[in-house]
Amino acid sequence: MKKIFALAIIALSTLVASAEGTYIGGNVGYWHSGANNTNHLTILPELGYNFSKTWAIGTTVGYDYIHFCGEKTSGHMFQVAPYARFSYFRSSNDLVQLFVDGGVGFGAGWTSYEDEDSKTACIWNVGLRPGIAINLSEKFSFVTHIGFLGYK
Fold first, then answer.
1. Which of 35, 47, 130, 152 has the fewest Cβ atoms nearer than 10 Å?
2. pLDDT mean across residues, the chain
């Protein structure tokens, strides 16, 4: 299994390196919420393609885990979130780029409870996510999203 996974990563890296407008990124996060005493783990790799300096498409595909501390309750969610990105501002030296992602997200998984059987869980969202990119070079950028305007 490890060999297959390593081979898939090498193949993806080779494909991405050879495609001019392709980009990769993602989100890995872990946090603890004291308000409801939960731990969250998120792994969301991202793959996209730039058609021009203005338009791009992409998707995130990943996994989200939540655990309620002190209980035997947890949730597992697999997610897919395709989007179209419109860049509406670039600085004169291309250092700063403002954009908005419009997309739809889907997720399916299960929750397990201490005293009950597992239950199916489904999520979906549709909306806009504004963001900013700091382009440090032609091949490397820091990208962040600021909020979400839509329906979850």
1. 35
2. 85
